[in-house]
Amino acid sequence: MTDIHVRVLRADEHRQALDLVYRALHHSRSTDEEWTLRAKGHQEGRILGAFLADELIGTAAALTSDTTVPGGARLPTAAVTGVGVRADRRRRGALRALMHDQLRDAAQRGEAMAALHASETSIYGRFGYGIGTHARGVRVHARHAAVRPDIPSSGEIRQLGGVTEVLATMPEVYRRIGRPRVGMMERPEGWWAIKYGRWFGAGDSHEVAVHEGTDGASGFVCYRTQEISDYAGPNFAAHLEVVDLHANSLSALADLWRHLLAVDLVATIETHPRPLDEPYPLLFTDPRVCTAVPESDDEIWYRLLDVPRALASRSYQDAEPVVIEVRDELFPDNAGRYRLSAAGADRTDAAADLHCDVQTLAMLYFGSYRASDLAELGRITIAEQGAAVRADQLLRTEQASWCGTGY
Ligand SMILES: CC(=O)SCCNC(=O)CCNC(=O)[C@H](O)C(C)(C)COP(=O)(O)OP(=O)(O)OC[C@H]1O[C@@H](n2cnc3c(N)ncnc32)[C@H](O)[C@@H]1OP(=O)(O)O
């Protein structure tokens, strides 16, 4: 709709935008304490507002970050968050206007991709976002669980104190553990204030335990416990919710679980969404103490903004080359043919073996989907038999891609 216009919000408009998003997502309005934390995470120029006349009707924000891509390179990324449109002004094009301006702004900043957690899967594909990583929560029956004693321990657990120590320590801990998985992202400084500041704010009961190996931090877990029955009966129990967990080895992961299982009076433990290929049952003496939490498992949606750069920045497995033709209506400069080979990716004039749109390319890029499956599902057109299988091999990643950061 033409009478909607989008502009960067001034700092004095940010709280109004936050409350608009909170209402859109059914949260209560921000408290003053929460606002103080949130304000620390806001990045100048990255919160957009959609206006009808002079009335703010929608907003979308982004954090400046980067994402690890196959092969280990890190690509500048707009981590999109805080998207909402007022309930009484929906389906008039406010989101469309916000998304277009936001993507153009990110591209102008030199960001090779935009990324987001989607509230609903039906929204973002039209803007070129495709599912890049997957994740699934794990539920463990703590009273019957024990970590297998033959998994070697590789360090000590140190529990951190209050919010000051946590905020001073955790950014460096996260940096130290590195980026063991494709899809992991840089956590901007303000992210820690927003997330951990809130988890450790007044009236909250979160804890952080850091795993310290011989070379320094190799993992950490942030969790909180909640009573699920009172002291009166014989079955007093608490539920432990893991809200953030990263480890750069399975032995560090096992040690963190030894710590979690040592927390007394806990009946059940549930984790934030984990990588799909983490061999969870094998951590425990009885593999059946854990089950997947039955939820949808798309984690991060990516929009490739600079396709030539993105394709040239990732690594490829050893296989015969394939030429892929990409369509991109919003960023026509991305459109064209690219030759992918074990040596890298370049534009080419050669005939295409496969054709797909930029959304499908994002699904291939992180190795989370096989080209041959997407071809069977009608998302890729094949010009040459065997090309999809070559693309499967070239684009395969060793481990499941996973971000592990909520924003
Ligand atoms: C990254 C994040 O922050 S995720 C959080 C997203 N926010 C929410 O889910 C909060 C609740 N929802 C909202 O605030 C709004 O409904 C929004 C932001 C999802 C959509 O805003 P609107 O201004 O109504 O969207 P807009 O009118 O621009 O619609 C653009 C297109 O998306 C479609 N669309 C919009 N919302 C939805 C939806 N929830 N489901 C399916 N399609 C949708 C529209 O039909 C339209 O389709 P078209 O391309 O065929 O024309």
Automatic annotation (TrEMBL):
Where are the active-site residues found?
Answer: 124, 407
Q: Which InterPro entries did the record assign?
A: Acetyltransf_17, Acetyltransferase_Eis, Acyl_CoA_acyltransferase, Eis_dom, GNAT_dom, NAcTrfase_Eis, SCP2_sterol-bd_dom_sf
Q: Which UniProt keywords apply?
A: Acyltransferase, Transferase
Q: Name one GO biological process term.
A: aminoglycoside antibiotic catabolic process
- Which residues does UniProt call coiled coil? none
Task: Please state every residue range assigned to the domain named N-acetyltransferase.
Answer: 4-152
Which PROSITE patterns does the annotation name?
A: GNAT
- Sites where the protein binds acetyl-CoA: 83-85, 91-96, 119-120
HAMAP family per the record? Answer: Eis (MF_01812)
Subunit-structure text: Homohexamer; trimer of dimers.
List the protein's name: Putative acetyltransferase
Record lineage: Bacteria, Bacillati, Actinomycetota, Actinomycetes, Pseudonocardiales
